[in-house]
Amino acid sequence: MEWATKDGFFKAKVPREQMTTEIGTIWVYGLKCGEKDEYENAVVRFKAKSRQVHLANARAKLLQITVYDQHGKLMFDDTEMGQLCEVPAIIADPILDVARRLSGMTTGEIEELVKNSETAQKKDSNTG
Hints:
This protein has a single domain (about 15-120), classed as rbstp2171, CATH 3.30.2220. About 50% of the residues lie in helices and about 15% in strands. It has helices at about 5-10, 35-45, 60-65, 80-85, 90-100, 110-125; strands at about 15-20, 25-30, 45, 50-55, 65-70.
């Protein structure tokens, strides 16, 4: 067995996968640790003792930060979030499945965040 090194961690490449969709070929990249944290923080926000779940744009946000063009550049920016929300789910969902897999997310990870948030919120309201 070979032991990992710091250098190995810092040189690790973000996984990516080329994907052909009904609308053309794209690159789907996995998230880095910090990007995944930012994404999760955008979906579940903690303010003092309250937790607010913002799932309204969760899919669009994940598309925005994982879909790249043929040149390896992010395809979408913040100004296009409204348009990303209008992408048909039948096109978006297979891309999102790949993005989640490449980012080490389970299918129910966001739902688990929500559930944990609700459980923690109930505990806070019972103790506060």
